[in-house]
Amino acid sequence: MVNSRSLDDLLPPVRARAQAFLEACEKAGIKLLITSTFRDLESQAALYAQGRTAPGRIVTNARPGKSYHNWRVALDVVPLRDGQAVWSTVGADGKLWEKIGALGEAAGLEWAGRWTTFRELAHFQYTGGLSIDALAAGEIPAEAA
């Protein structure tokens, strides 16, 4: 079962944008922890089971093969304050997440904090406009922005 935290496991055009994003956050004084990049299908199945057939709360609506993480084009992050993860999204913490989202978008990533369904502040991706089906068929997002 693979649930990577390494940028090396992302496709090159995604990795370049993710590196630019992390550098922009660091320059802004925001320390991020990468919590997930590539997930294999077995790992995705385990996450999908959470809150359904396994203990825990629901953390994804994506079945195996239907997550952009499975195709190496997505990453999840969390900001750190004094070495501790900041999962709160209210008050000053909400403003921090908004800043992180804006920095990710400026680096060419799509921020799931703007989604209207299953909004996920920690999730960023670059698909180059490709669908899950296109990625599964072997298409790769273009290098050029």
Explained architecture:
There is one protein chain. With 145 residues, this protein is an alpha+beta fold. It has one domain (7-132): Muramoyl-pentapeptide Carboxypeptidase, domain 2, CATH 3.30.1380. The protein has four helices and five strands. It has helices at residues 12-27, 41-49, 91-106, 132-136; strands at 31-36, 74-81, 84-85, 110-111, 123-125. Strands 1, 2, 3, 4 and 5 form a five-stranded antiparallel beta sheet that branches. Helix 1 crosses helix 3. The model has no long low-confidence stretch (mean pLDDT 96).
Task: Summarize the structure in short.
The protein is an alpha+beta fold and 145 residues long. Helices cover 32% and strands 14% of the residues. Strands 1, 2, 3, 4 and 5 form a five-stranded antiparallel beta sheet that branches.
Taken from the alpha-carbon principal axes, the silhouette is globular
Q: What would the average pLDDT be, to the nearest integer?
A: 96
Regions with little confidence, pLDDT below 50 for 5+ residues: none
Structural class: alpha+beta
Number of helices: 4
